[in-house]
Amino acid sequence: MTYVLGVVLFAIGILISLALHEAGHMGTARMFGMKVTRFFIGFGPTLWSFRRRETEYGIKAIPAGAFVKIVGMTQQDDEVDPEDEPRAMWRYPVWKRTIVMSAGSMTHFALGVLILWGLFAFVPVQDVARLQSEPVRVGSTSPCVQAS
After folding, report:
1. E runs forming strands in 9-135
2. Could you list the residue range(s) of the whole structural domain that residue 28 is in?
3. Residue partners of 96: CB distance under 8 A and separation at least 6
4. Catalytic residue (one of 22, 56, 85, 134)
5. Residue 79 within any structural domain of the chain
6. Per-residue pLDDT reduced to its tens digit, 125-147
7. Is residue 135 part of a domain?
8. pTM above 0.70?
């Protein structure tokens, strides 16, 4: 039972990490004024979704990843409506596109720093008074065998 619980918690942690990765892309794209139309966890058929403002959020059937759809991620993107043309990603300067594309990785970096800080700040070290205070003592040694 403990093993199954561990596997389930690990899978949930990976999905949360993937969602935060995509949220990094989405947040920076919105910050620069790009239009974000979809944010989904998983792939395949949609199980559940809702729309808030111009973005559709949802969960798909295969929990093997996540994705965010930014209008005009490439110049060959055929789905760009004429009114969305000024907010297409490919129209923005390279430095803004680079920030948007690297924001997912930076989110993972920030998440790692946050987890390590929480670990070092709140997980107690056992018996702090004894750390590095007692000299190392050798309990016993094995007898040496002489070569004949």
Report:
1. 36-52, 55-70
2. 2-114
3. 32
4. 22
5. yes
6. 777 666 667 777 888 888 888 77
7. no
8. yes
